[in-house]
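Input/output pair, single chain:
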Amino acid sequence: MRRLGIAGAALLAASCGYHAPAAPSSTIPPPTHGTPWTLSVSGAGLTGGTSARIFARAADAYGDGTAHVTVHFTTTSGVLSEPDPQTNETGIAETTLTAAPSTSATVTAVLDALAVQTVVVIQPDGAPTFTPGPPILAPPVPTPTPPAVVPSFSVGLVAAPTTVAAGSGSLLTATAVPINGAPAATSYAWDCDGDGTAEVTNALTTHSCTYSTVGSVTSRVTVAGGSVTGAGSTTVTVVGPALTLTCTPLAGKIVNCAVTATLNGAPVVSTGISVGAWDFGDAGAGAHSAAGNTATNTYTAVNTYTVRALSVTVTGSTAAANVSANITAIN
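Output:
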């Protein structure tokens, strides 16, 4: 019967089981419970002289086996039954090497930055022999390359006021702080409506923007100094007038209507309110008259109607809006 020899860091020939290795081993910091700190390898011969069981044990800095980590085995000769086994609860991962008699194979076990070898010699006869594999040092941890120092600007942008009526303006003020050797800012490109295109470019740190669209507008500034640029943004809320339509029914199926408005929380005088058109909900059947913010309509039948004031504008705002109310004409 042929016999098997296995050489390695801590190799003991045995009929079965695992024998705690002595050397070689490799280490990595830090010494934390459950973190692989050492890796050792050993083996046992199998009957038949063509196979060897290879064991790798991962342990933390306190000697406790590290479970459920993957050990990667490679061999220079023969075939491994499982090249990437996981360690069991005691930290042992196992694979089997199958090779022809008189074969010498170097088996390497790798776990993260840990690596160790054993030289397995398949003997056609005689007692097992072994030779320690060369020590394998953990690869050095690369020193991260510090990020390149890039000149830039830290740009701030504020609006005053932050809420404006449609058609009015807000003053934008930019601050540009040079970073990492950037030159002083010399150019400011102002994009009031936030569409990505600057309306004005100058050397001033302030700019007045006029806002015509109701809603939330993000204004931006792009700052430049030499080849260095930076950008900042701020949000301006644009509001339209708050409109109210009040209609009063009178005898004879007559209805008097008036539009009132507030802008930025303040009431608008009646002469500052203009109505583009009136819709009394009767398809124009009744006679009506309108002036400024008021209108009168005489209905031809008693009923409930929806009255609408269309394209209402107020002084101080370019926003136009509609407002409606329900009214019942009476005899």
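The chain has no helices and 27 strands. Confidence is low (pLDDT under 50) at residues 1-30, 126-130.
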